[in-house]
Amino acid sequence: MEPEDLYQRHGFSSDRLGDAVATTDVFDRQFGSELAAWELELHRGFQERLSGRTLKIRGFVHHTRDSSLILLTPSPWLLEGMFVYFRRDQDLPLDGEFIEVTGRSVAVPRILEQSQEIVRAITADAVEKLPEKFLSEIKHPLSLKELSGMLFEQVGMAEASKRVFAQLFISSPPFEESIGGLTAGIQAIASQRQVRQLLRFIRDVLPPTFRGKVAKHRRVRGISVVTPRLWRMDVGSPSKSRMETLCVKRMDPSGFREVSLSALTDSETGFLPDVPLALTSEDFWVERKAASDLRLPIIKAAVTYQLLTPKVAKRSIEASTKHVLSRLETLKESFDLEDAAMSRGSILDADSLGRPLSTVRLARSSARASWKDKVTASDLKRSWDRVLEPALKEYLELTQLKTEAERDWGKGRPLHHFNTKILKALKKLDAGTPSSLGPSLGEIAAEAGLEHHIAAKELEQMKNAGVLYEPRPGHYRLV
């Protein structure tokens, strides 16, 4: 699809400035089409001249290395604006606060004395914290369906999985003492080359700042300003210890407020993310796509979602937690798992920072995608019922299938060459008795939900690979 068509479909209706392609980074954006519509509106109302040298400015606080200066910008995601000078007896506002300052334009005294350089600022004669009323005026950003369609139009994957990966870009606010964000892992019986191609695409959509590659300080007109560490995404095949830090301890050593994770996992790490996704070769494909064409609309969507912190009542969390715990117990019994599966960092993880928190994170991400500022108990239960439990079931089934296949055929077998629907059908239909002829082609095709000719082709490939045999023409059994 041409970039013009892509923005007409996905960008124009949600953000009238979503009509330009650029490879810009988050804090390097300037004016016009590089800014989200709400940023442009705040830019227009950023500065007001009251009289000769007296100004009133409204913006977001960025601390600097100079204890007498802050940088005020029209957006939390911009590092160009106006410096504000505070006397020693004045308290600095909190980093990230939205404030209004009235003062006179001056040259910063300390810099003028030390280097004879003139850096303009306004004095903090009056400082007031402002409510973020502009949130109610923001047009609905891209919906989850629109965002998923934009990102994964050329990816063959279940729609539910596509939406989970899209929600990584939406993220989720911090909860109590844990970092925000959302984590998803791919446990695949599929071509790892294709999976890695998908992850590269996800990584390349993001500018360096969103990948965590950001210096702690940036020079703005000669002043060292603290770079906000708001959200980043970790993409690739992280180590188990790194994944445990994000998924179990819910901490980020880099100090970001929200961290999403998009990971290719293995048997040791597949169960750690909030949503473990199972991918099979017959259901997955990916085509090359110019990730940089999507960078600007994704930036504008991501910074907009970050403004909203959907609230969730304690009683709603308690009600949903009871629901999640009962469903986890059912999963444990249906898959004949040990009690340890419920422990911290284990496959089901019934701890308050485990699957129940994953449900909260997913529901708050969904609320951001719908531009809703509240999350109900029904929303939380829906996140479990429609996303997390089906994903866990599929993951457990795939893990079980892979374990049994490796036990029966050895670890060297290229499992991604085999159709998992056929494998599941054979395991279900084969009686397992020595005299059995095995299920017929028609029975296998019906159980797998495949057309006869496709099932026949897959069965022939598996027979040639030595993982099944044909005791009678048209009947099959696993080795």
Break the fold down into its secondary structure elements and pairings.
Elements: H1 3-10, H2 37-44, E1 47-51, E2 54-63, E3 69-73, E4 82-85, E5 98-107, H3 109-115, E6 120-123, E7 126-129, H4 144-152, E8 155-156, H5 159-170, E9 183-189, H6 192-205, E10 217-220, E11 223-226, E12 231-236, H7 240-247, E13 258-264, E14 275-280, E15 285-286, H8 295-305, E16 311-312, H9 314-334, H10 355-369, E17 374-375, H11 377-409, H12 420-429, H13 441-448, H14 452-464, E18 468-472, E19 475-478
Parallel strand pairs: 4-6, 9-13, 9-14, 12-13, 16-17
Antiparallel strand pairs: 1-2, 2-3, 2-5, 3-4, 5-6, 5-7, 8-15, 10-11, 18-19
Helix pairs in contact: 4-5, 9-10, 9-11, 10-11, 12-13, 13-14
User: How much helical structure, as a percent, in the residues?
Assistant: 25-40%
Number of helices: 14
Q: Which structural class matches the secondary elements?
A: alpha/beta
| Rg of Cα set | 27 Å
β-sheet strand percentage? 15-25%
Largest sheet: 5 strands, mixed, barrel
Q: Which shape, going by the Cα principal axes?
A: elongated
Quaternary structure of the protein: single chain
Which stretches are poorly predicted, pLDDT < 50 over at least 5 residues?
A: 6-14, 16-21
Give me the side-by-side strand order of the main sheet.
Answer: 2-3-4-6-5
Count every beta strand, where a strand is a DSSP E run of 2 or more residues: 19
Question: What value does the average pLDDT take?
Answer: 87
Task: Tell me the distance between the termini.
Answer: 46 Å
